[in-house]
Amino acid sequence: ILKKKAWIDLQIICPDNSELYVRFKDIYPDDKTEVFNVSCGGIKKQAIQYHEKEFHKINRDNVLINLGYKKQGGQYVCSVQFLSPGEYSLDDIKNQVEVYAQRLDLYDRYIEELSHESLNIEEMTDRYVKGNISVSNDKWICFSVPYSSGWKIYIDGELQNSQKLNYVYLGAVVPEGDHIVELRYSVPGLRLGIFISIIGVI
Predict the structure, then answer these.
(1) How high is the pLDDT of residue 16?
(2) What is the pTM of this model?
């Protein structure tokens, strides 16, 4: 980008009665944090992408922007404006820019389909959750529980690699098929603390 407020235009085809989203994958400013504007059909949004060496950079590789509800479908122009000159890693437009249109007239159907593959809770306390689930393919399960190293996810008795989803929640991948899922909590460092206490007593 050679001048301030330069922009690129993306041609987007959107169906009727849809929410429109644009996602930028792996776009990094070359030497500083960058603010850029995105506009489409009268909707204007601003996004910030931090330089990878910024001390307060969050662990985000992608930027997803909601471009609003479009009652009338058709072709739209999405303008991306960069507020300052610089170099950006956006090597392949086809692979690094994605457009999603969420049809709201199908929203209830999507919810109904997803509800068939949700966790059926059999037992729940403040430190333990157990349930069964059946999924048609590998899927993420997301608990409305803040991510913490104290919470462990077990599938069919095997400890899973827990992940932080949506920056906050606890989740893991559930493989295709029928499974028993358990969520167990123990205070981080408790066993080590007990061990040290025993040594101290001895």
Answers:
(1) 92
(2) 0.56
